[in-house]
Amino acid sequence: MKMFRIQRESSDRRGVAAVEMAFVFPVFMLLVLGVIEFGRYMMVGQLVTNAAREGSRLAIRGTFTEEEVKQDILGFITDAVGVEAGQVDIDVSTESGDTIQSAESKDPITVSVAIRFKDVTYLPLLDEGGSGDDDPFSGLRAQHDADDWITGVSVMRKE
């Protein structure tokens, strides 16, 4: 029985996989980083909303001051999200403008918590850095300014 050898035409296909990888890999990595960033955004959004809800629960009791409620929220956010205290904006208010302790029963108390998106992103491109005409990411940073906040708001009536 004779064995036949099949010769492959390898000379004209060399390096094709490397070229294909050079085209596909950046797109794939961009997709993976986008999924990670979106997941981080959703997680921080839930944590900020939970912090506002917990702050509202404390505020409606009437036994805590605005500062005590803010400190509790701040402790929760800094531990859960990993940001510094100066990066969190917290507002505790009543509809009538009174303090939460002097508000009447059934008055709505609003607690809002906000963090800038660029303070919680994993992408270093949005962080401070670079300047002038040589900064390739200046346009991207300009799009993520102080207007891009992750906000959680909770309104509950005082007991």
Topology:
Layout: H1 16-59, H2 66-81, E1 88-94, E2 108-116, H3 138-143, E3 149-157
Antiparallel strand pairs: 1-2, 2-3
Strand arrangement across the biggest beta sheet? 1-2-3
Number of domains: 1
**Low-pLDDT segments, ≥5 res:** none
Shape: rod-shaped
Order of helices and strands: HHEEHE
Estimate percent helicity: 40-55%
Biggest sheet: strands, sense, closure? 3 strands, antiparallel
What distance separates the N and C termini? 95 Å
Tell me the quaternary state: single chain
- Count of helical segments? 3
Which structural category do the helix and sheet elements fall into?
Answer: alpha+beta
- Work out the number of β strands: 3
In angstroms, what is the radius of gyration? Answer: 26 Å
* Content of β-strand: 15-25%
Average pLDDT over all residues: 83
